[in-house]
Specification:
It is a single chain. The protein is an alpha/beta fold. It is built from 10 helices and 15 strands. Strands 1, 2, 3, 4, 5, 6, 7, 8, 9, 10 and 11 form an 11-stranded mixed beta sheet that branches. A 4-stranded parallel beta sheet has the order 12-15-13-14. The structure holds threonylcarbamoyladenylate and magnesium ion. The site of threonylcarbamoyladenylate has 28 residues, from strand 6 and strand 7.
Length: 320
């Protein structure tokens, strides 16, 4: 059990930072999805966080940092194009994979020589990171706050539903309202001459090319393990079918211009791609809450964020 804290005053955030420093776990909002955080330099806390998530111990985890000054603590040999990306898109929905320093231990990097860094764009997350830095912390390791393989939570209630049975009383869940982006950050490999996207998100290939002036290439080194890249991930309990052919009693998620077949249960009718991204996971969760056996999803067309949405839908629909 862990309590949800809805008024995240500076005092609360200070106390949450102290809690992290003494080995506690703190779930916090970001603009993408909620994360379950642990001190990125506390092996024991991270091991417990992995147990709470039921995640294999050798998976790497993103280190969230307060500001650009922390980058050199964790990463080295940073290419110019990565610095350009940091300047343009941090704080924001982007994770950069960089060569690690000796500070990034194997329990954070999954035994790889690469560390994943992100500055999130959410006032609660940023304030928590700043308070943590004031007391000597350098980063908060935080995967999405769901059980392994499940849909990422975009609200504090969803975090509680996923993890409450596994958290301890001293752990905390900070409520910062619904996540505005709603899909996990874009993961960009910055260890090669050109950037490549390992997980699509709100920062698109076009945006990366515009900022860096260099071409985004296909990931060549498939040795890099990205857990969200396992084929079935981000999956609800319900069976997910791609399309609009929902029968009576089945769920449907589709853009608002697609009609709901008679008797089907409309879980989301977004009017824009941004709204689609923001509501996809909460709609899947709602389907599970209603006990639906089957949810039909009509993927949005187009590039950019639509591509990231299709990526998650395809994963939710694939059976092991
Ligand atoms: O938007 C997000 O990225 C959210 C919020 C909480 O920041 N976090 C998130 O974390 O989605 P997670 O652990 O659920 O997914 C992060 C992905 C994982 O698939 C992990 O394998 C990959 O990032 N990753 C993290 N560090 C890495 C590293 N050093 N090398 C390769 N992949 C890494
Ligand atoms: Mg995840």
């Amino acid at each position: 059990m862990a309590s949800i804290i809805s008024q995240c005053s500076l005092d609360v955030l200070r106390q949450a930072a102290e809690n992290l420093k003494s080995g506690g776990l703190v779930a916090f909002p970001t603009e993408t999805v909620y994360g379950i955080g642990a001190d990125a330099e506390n092996h024991e806390a991270i091991s417990r966080m992995y147990k709470v998530k039921n995640r294999p111990a050798d998976h790497p985890v993103i280190v969230h940092i307060a500001d650009l000054d922390e980058v050199d603590y964790w990463a080295r040999e940073i290419p110019d194009y990565a610095i350009a990306l940091m300047r343009d898109y941090w704080p924001g929905p982007m994770t950069l994979l960089l060569r690690r320093t000796e500070k990034a231990k194997d329990y954070v990097t999954g035994n790889q020589n690469i560390v994943g860094l992100r500055i999130p764009a959410h006032t609660v997350a940023i304030s928590l990171l700043q308070e943590f830095k004031k007391i000597g912390g350098h980063g908060i390791a935080a995967p999405s706050a769901n059980r392994y393989g499940a849909v990422s939570p975009t609200t504090a209630d969803a975090v509680s539903a996923e993890l409450k049975d596994y958290l301890e009383p001293k752990d905390q869940i900070l409520d910062g309202g619904p996540s505005l982006v709603g899909l996990e950050s874009t993961i960009i490999d910055c260890t090669q001459n050109n950037p490549s996207i390992l997980r699509p998100g709100a920062i698109t290939a076009e945006m990366i090319e515009e900022t860096t002036g260099i071409i985004v290439v296909e990931p060549e080194d498939i040795k890099i393990r990205v857990s969200g890249s396992h084929k079935q991930h981000y999956a609800p309990q319900a069976h997910v079918i791609i399309g609009t052919n929902a029968q009576s009693g089945e769920g449907l998620i589709a853009m608002s211009d697609i009609e709901t077949p008679h008797g089907a249960i409309r879980l989301a009718a977004p009017q824009s791609i941004e709204e689609y991204a923001r509501n996809l996971y909460s709609a899947l969760r709602e389907g599970d809450k209603q006990g639906l056996q089957t949810i039909h999803i009509a993927p949005p067309t187009g590039e950019g964020l639509a591509l990231a949405i299709r990526d998650r839908i395809n994963r939710a629909a694939s059976r092991p």
